Amino acid sequence: MTFPTSDPRILARREGGLGTITIDRPEAINALERSMLQAIRGVLDAWVTDPDVQVVLFDATGERGFSAGGDIRRLYEAISRGLVVEAEPFFRDEYSLNAYIDEYPKPIVVFADGVTMGGGIGIAGHAHVRIVTETSKLAMPETRIGFTPDAGGSWLLGHAPGRIGEFLALTSWVMGPADAIHAGFADHFAPASRLPSIREALTTRADPSTPTELILLFDETLEPGPIERAQGWIDDAFSADTVTEIVDRLRALEASGVAAGEEVSPATALAALAERSPVALSVTLAAIRSSRVMRGLRDALSQEFALVSWFMQTQPDMVEGIRAQLVDKDRSPRWTPAALADVDPEIVGEAFAYEPEHPLFG
Fold first, then answer.
1. pLDDT at 45 exceeding the cut of 70
2. Phi-psi category of 263—alpha, beta or left, where left has phi over 0 and alpha has psi -120 to 50?
């Protein structure tokens, strides 16, 4: 049985007790526009009281990924023209949907197959049962575009083991399936070839009765990923108080030969940090540590909404980062300032003191 939605790129259907929401924009790796977020919310609203829908499944079409995130090219157009008022509603709808998924009273399962980043994590990361495959590539890449992890990403990163959250947030590192599970962004691994069988099992709901128990029948144990193997020196370096101190520790570790030649090493972390916006790095480090001690996801989302408003209203790096990475694609952003040493020591306090005109919740 199919259900009409307010956006043709969001497909909804029910089979047995399983309601499936499919993101259908494969030409853009299922990047999310505001109307798509609203359509997803509309389906979830309808199903929350539908007794025939017992479990909700999110998946996507195409072979490249579940969702590359929000369609920020459209946001770039608005922000670069100074029309923040046109960009802000996207983030309001997105973050509200993230909270709704987290709090949804029925089990939500997601196939985080292929590329799942940014706003894609905002859907997949807050679902109740999160499945990754051998093709999964998960990341919060916002520092690449002069911004900070959002869509509830700061909450997930803040609760990753040790200092992996700081590492992932600052470097925008892409996780494979094993590291996604270790970092708390996913729950189970299953080969992509088994996803149809999992879907069938969720539809028929034979014993065992809960989605988690059922998916455990398909779960396979993975060897530790490169980030988990590097956790010792990551915890050492990324526990420093400031980004500058993190860089200093990484340089010392590199000089000592720690993890030399490994995929995840002090040298590769330093190379990533050297490409990021100094302001974004400074604000992001504070955001992850703030989220770590918050009461719940809603608090983290409220903080993220205030920060995105601050970035859009006051900082040039967000527009410049989007331009360099996704519009002109020259991969040569001109950050303001260009060096960590030139970052105003008051800027983090300024960012966290910013209050949007209309808060996210209430």
1. yes
2. alpha
Judged by average pLDDT, the poorest of 86-90, 176-180, 186-190, 235-239 is 86-90
Residue 38, number of CB atoms within 10 A of its CB: 16
Q: Kindly give the residue spans of alpha helices, DSSP state H, lying in the chain.
A: 34-47, 72-80, 84-103, 119-124, 153-158, 164-171, 177-182, 195-204, 211-215, 226-229, 231-238, 243-256, 266-274, 278-292, 297-314, 317-322, 347-353
Task: Compute the CA torsion angle 132, 156, 149, 112 (nearest 10 deg).
Answer: 10
Sign of the alpha-carbon torsion through 311, 314, 318, 321: negative
Residue with more model confidence, 214 or 178? 178
Task: Provide long-range contacts, Cβ within 8 A and 24+ apart, for 182-185.
Answer: 182/224, 182/225, 182/227, 182/228, 183/156, 183/227, 184/156, 184/159, 184/160, 185/121, 185/124, 185/125, 185/130, 185/138, 185/156, 185/160
At 213, the pLDDT band (50, 70, 90 cuts) reads confident
Parse the chain into domains and list their residue ranges.
Answer: 2-353
- The pLDDT of residue 216 is 84
What phi, psi does 79 have (nearest 5°)? -65, -40
Distance CA 172, CA 166 (A): 10
In angstroms, rounded to a whole number, what is the distance separating the alpha carbons of residues 65 and 28? 10
Q: What is the CATH number of domain 2-353?
A: 3.90.226.10
Sign of the dihedral through C-alpha 249, 254, 259, 265: positive
Q: CA torsion angle for 108, 284, 244, 234 (degrees, to 10)?
A: 0
C-alpha to C-alpha distance for 329 and 62, rounded to whole angstroms? 24
